[in-house]
Every structure is written in structure tokens, then in C-alpha cells.
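Reopening this one. Same input as before:
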Amino acid sequence: MTEQISSGVELMFAGMGIVFIFLTMLVVSINFMSACVQRFFPERPASKLNLSAGLDKTTVAAITSAVHQYRNRHNQ
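Same output, byte for byte:
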């Protein structure tokens, strides 16, 4: 019986070690890929992005009205 328990504990630690090593490698690879993406594809500054250039005042008013109506109906 003690041999089975020691074998089970040994198997448990081996499994936990494998999972720990896998998760460590996953974190390292995600951090490496993030660094590569930030290095080769930097974000544009927000001042260069002009999102409202193609919208006129009536479109903005319509969107604002729709959002206001949606929030009034769904926040009860």
C-alpha cells in the first residue's frame, strides 16, 4: 500500500512539474512575442489618428441619440 502511495505522489509531482514547466515556457514565449510585436510594429501616436474626419455633425448626433436611447432602455 505504501508503495502505491509513494508511486502516486511521485507521479503527482512529475505531472505538476511538467505543467509548471509548460506554463513557464508559455509565459516566456508570450512575453517574447509581445516584445517582438512592439519592436517591429509600434503603435501610432493618438494625435495622428483622425477618426472623426469622415463624420459630419448629423451622423454624430444620430449615433449619440441611438446610444442614449439604448442606455435608457437597458439600464432599468
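So the earlier flakiness isn't reproducible anymore. For the record, The two ends are 62 Å apart (CA to CA).
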